[in-house]
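User: Sequence for Peptidase S1 domain-containing protein below. Tokens please.
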Amino acid sequence: MYKVFIFSVCLSVCLSFVTCDLDKEEGEDCEWDGIKGKCVHPNVCLTTLDKRRAKPPVCSQKGDETIICCTDCELVNDTSNFIISASSGVFWKDGRKSRDACLQYLKDLPHKCRQEGYYAGLSRKLDEEKKCHRFSLWAVGGAPGPGARVPSENPYEAVVGFGQGRDMIYWMSAGSIIHEKFVLTAAHRLNASSSIPDRPLTYVALGVKNMDRSTWEIHNVTRIHVHPDYDGDQSRYNDIALLELETPISFNRDVLPACLPDPAEEFDTSKAKFTSWLRNDSDPIIKGPFDSPHVVELREFTAEECNANMENVDPLQSYIYRIYLPNKVNGDSQVCYGPENCMYIMGGPIAVTTQYSRCMNTVIGISLFDGHKCAPTVFTKVQHFVSWIESIVWP
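Assistant: Structure tokens for Peptidase S1 domain-containing protein:
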């Protein structure tokens, strides 16, 4: 009877792992294919992530807990914190909330690289000198399959509207998805305060590629979080807000979150992309300035360059700058970008490619104004406000 019991347990465990050795406990020495190892929990052994090779043998099994023989040269803290990027290498989640969320998006969601057929993983290789296993990254793909649909250029973008009901919404502003329940936008577009009792209902539209509303995903906004230091009656410093949605977003290839810039890391912000919406005044049903989006590349200006340019714009624009930026551009909490060529820039977010993957975006700025066609415009610097955002989105 005892032998039958051992056999049945071993058989069920071996469906997932290679062999059974119920006599070894966690921390004891073990051996796998002639290589000495240590009996450990699977989540500290990178070998378990090498999906192309045989799984390690089992040292022991107690209920749902499996202890395996790991022949890695180095053990890790937790393999669930290990994220693989086909385009940028490997990363570890480290407790920084928005950064960890970005890495989890990279792991779980159908971002552009995954749609284009990029896949990556770990490959185990024997260190002949130390007689243990080390790992390298492998990546394959890069060509979408036959009939694959072109992914959305900026799936993180949202359109914000006001109205008394869904039959008549005024789509007036832009935002950025950063979480399944939150959209980042400019505070000045929201009547500055969520405490106004008779303010119109607020909506967010996602997956907006054109004016065909049947393809839009529309959400109700249940709460507005305006930065506590924003004073729209006096200036546009700290001009940032979060829209909390009533229901979670169902992410798909056309609706995906953007990352937030990590205050602890440096990355290239010299060039940013901006989605410009052309005006559409011919549609009597859809109220708002949107027609179709196109991506514009912007270059960064220093605060000094931006302040100097404010003196050279038309009188109305110069007056607006003086009213809303009485202390001029604050280089800590604001940033300036402008087009390479003269063109009108209508307010919205700007983004760069995230440092974790070339196929994901990091939102770095929120527009304070509609830009003058031949001068840079001012954006709220998102990086400066990450701690405030995290306190609400990832408390």
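The first strand starts at residue 29 and ends at 32.
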